[in-house]
Specification:
alpha/beta; Glucose Oxidase, domain 1; 9-stranded mixed sheet; two-stranded antiparallel sheet; 10 helices; disordered N terminus
């Protein structure tokens, strides 16, 4: 009888825990719903950083990664542990890897003393770790800093302005990890969940870290852990909600990072009918604020290391392939603890 009562009690406690979690999520959703597309359209003017670093600037808030900041960031290296933040490139189609995004590695020849191969990949999308360039996202005929698309982007030459070459010397800066599953007490955050400003600030309070100018924000939702357990998926993304945009403007990171596409999805009420075209987070931070993106990162090992060390800030470094005219580049970022 005692055992039966214990089982019943555990069941009630589990049910109560689920109810509390759902209530908390509902509260966040209610708070987040106060942000509207009208706010977003107003922020285009309010958050605009065009001309702040000169009329010819192509780096945006990456200008805040100064030599002094890099010297300071080097002091974050304590144990010397180095962890890759990139998943193995996808070489087979899957739900989140359309045929066009498959990384084609073709071995051309195997000789007596060497082997040769060829790589071909379309890296934008949901599968390969990559960074964007400002000419990748634009609206109304302009990209970041007001550069004309018609005058600067062609199929033949690629991007004359706003290309990935603005980061050819690489990125070395402070990374701040935002561990959402740990915050919410789950293994991963379910696809389709908007990550709100309240979530980010709750994590900052819990972990005692806060992103600042020139940093790389690494938003972890457990994408690869869920994929390994349940299989690949596409369409729904636990990503940055629109109410995080004022937070981005205030903190001025150089990059927003994520282990999936940074925009939350689905986005009911945030479409073309409301005047919000494309991916609203991509558009706002890249075109207007001048913050760049590094996404589809594999943060699992970095999270394991950070949790073990109880350290959620560390050095990060990566560099694009120096492709003239490129709209971005695959990357293999390194976290250095």
């Amino acid at each position: 009888m005692r055992r039966r009562n214990n089982v019943r009690l555990l069941g009630l406690l589990w049910t109560a825990a689920i109810a509390i979690q759902l209530f908390a999520q509902a509260q966040v959703q209610t708070k987040s719903s106060t942000v509207t597309p009208a706010d977003y359209l107003q922020w285009k003017t309010q958050f605009k950083n065009w001309g702040r670093w000169g009329s010819d600037d192509e780096r945006g808030t990456s200008n805040l990664i100064t030599a002094a900041k890099i010297v300071s960031v080097a002091k974050l290296v304590k144990t010397g542990e180095v962890v890759s933040l990139a998943h193995a490139v996808p070489q087979k189609p899957a739900a989140d890897v359309p045929d066009a995004a498959v990384f084609h590695r073709t071995t051309l020849s195997v000789g007596p003393n060497s082997a040769l191969d060829n790589y071909q990949v379309s890296y934008h999308g949901l599968s390969t770790a990559h960074m964007d360039a400002f000419c990748h996202q634009f609206a109304d005929g302009q990209m970041y800093n007001g550069f004309s698309i018609a005058e600067n982007v062609t199929q033949e030459a690629g991007c004359k302005k706003g290309s990935v070459m603005a980061w050819r010397d690489g990125v070395v800066t402070r990374a701040v990890l935002y561990d959402m599953p740990q915050l919410k007490g789950v293994d991963w955050v379910e696809p389709g969940t908007p990550i709100t400003r309240a979530d980010l600030e709750a994590w900052e309070k819990k972990a005692g870290v806060k992103a600042g100018p020139g940093d790389v924000v690494l938003l972890y939702v457990g994408r690869w852990k869920r994929r390994a357990k349940l299989g690949p998926w596409a369409g729904q993304v636990a990503g940055y909600f629109a109410d995080t945009l004022p937070w981005v403007k205030e903190r001025e990171p150089a990059f927003l990072g994520h282990d999936f596409n940074i925009d939350w999805n689905p986005r009911p009420g945030w479409g073309a009918a409301e005047g919000v075209a494309g991916n609203p987070i991509h558009q706002m931070i890249m075109k207007w604020i001048g913050v760049n993106i590094v996404e589809n990162l594999d943060l699992e090992r970095a999270v394991e290391t950070a949790r073990r060390l109880k350290r959620y800030e560390f050095m990060v470094t990566f560099a694009p392939l120096p492709v003239e005219g490129g709209t971005g580049s695959p990357v293999n970022p390194l976290a250095i603890f």
